[in-house]
Amino acid sequence: MTHLTYLEAAVVGLIQGVSELFPVSSLGHNVLIPALIGGSWATDLNVAKPESPYLAFIVGLHVATALALLIYFWRDWVRIIGGFVSSIRYRQVRTRDQKLAWMIILATIPVGVVGLVAEHAFRVIFGKPIYAAVFLMVNGVILYCGERFRPRASVQADAVAARDWELARAGAPGAAAGHGVARHTGGHQAERQEEMALAVQADERLSRLGYAKAVVIGSAQILALLAGISRSGVTMVAGMGRGLSREDAARFAFLLATPVILAAGVLKVPDLMGPLGNGIRGQILLGSALSGLGAYVSVRFLMKYFQTRTLYPFAVYCFALGLLSIVYLGFIK
Questions:
Q1: For the chain, which terminus, N or C, has the lower number of CB atoms within 10 Å?
Q2: What value, to the nearest 5°, has the Cα angle with vertex 108 and ends 102 and 112?
Q3: Among 195-199, 207-211, 235-239, whose mean pLDDT is lowest?
């Protein structure tokens, strides 16, 4: 892959990092945008080619995206991994962190198995721009329906999450299971304490979800093998459909995505270190840096956004972009 320019690498890297976490499908955008631009972009950046070096490049960028998620949630992962280790050591699953660790493991298995078996077939058959546009419209419909037809339990969970958020901000006794936030500690430190308290509260709620529901939510990630279907979007919709608040559904979606995205990226790193990476390693570094930066900024924004806002804007965006892409690619270009 000798024709990947620094501009292409920068654009693809930034799109990957942002759109992987926003519920708008990173793969769908990375298939559509080169086709919409045309010219050398459409030639060089074709994900449907057999043994596509472009696919290796964008999947390799997943490592940077996953690292950004790990950095943002590092305190949570320390607790969760500690819960996993203690569950093995003591042969029990009782605490919040122990339960959440096993929920994530079990929920990741379905998409891991299907991805290993069928990823190539999904990409070759459906990794074409017109299909990506259609599935992007489908993604918009999924997001709209997930928001419009949320069950009562999910709406009520929003109220519970909002109450816990107010308790954490006020530093009320008992907030975050005894970890109230003293507002006089000042600026950034107080903000980080609030985030930690809210994270503990959210994980307490998630640990009560149950393993069966966790597996159903995690299995929704399988749909993201189709270019145009968002991993975070369908996982959020599945979470809300199982009674999670919008904010908890987003948090669980990001926690579930981290091992999947990291594993997918790590599997492609050897390809990029081999012949496929010859002549473009500088572009890979640039794309990875922008992907990681975009992902970190995105997750910080989205965790606050979903405290009070909905999936509707993303639903409209996906449907409109998919429809306009079909018109342009099918009838104008």
A1: C
A2: 145
A3: 195-199
For residues 298 and 71, the answer to whether their CB atoms sit within 8 Å is: no
**Prediction pTM value:** 0.90
Smallest CA-to-CA distance from 325 within 37, 14, 1 is with 37
What single-letter DSSP state applies at residue 217? H
What is d(CA 43, CA 298) in angstroms, rounded to the nearest whole number?
A: 29
Residue 187 pLDDT exceeds 80: no
Confidence of residue 179 (pLDDT cuts 50, 70, 90): very low
Q: What is the mean pLDDT of residues 266-292?
A: 83
Q: C-alpha distances in angstroms, 243 versus 11, 101, 124? A: 37, 20, 36
Tokens describing residue 154: 């999910």
Q: Give the separation between CA 294 and CA 193, rounded to whole angstroms.
A: 24
Q: Could you tell me how far CA 151 lies from the centroid of its own chain?
A: 23
DSSP output for 122-189: HHHHH-SHHHHHHHHHHHHHHHHHHHHT--HHHHHHHHHHHHHHHHHHHT-TTTTTT----GGG-HHH
Burial pattern 274-308, b for ≥16 Cβ within 10 A else e, equals eebbeebeebbebbbbbbbbbbbebbeebbebbbe
Check whether 223 has a pLDDT greater than 90.
yes
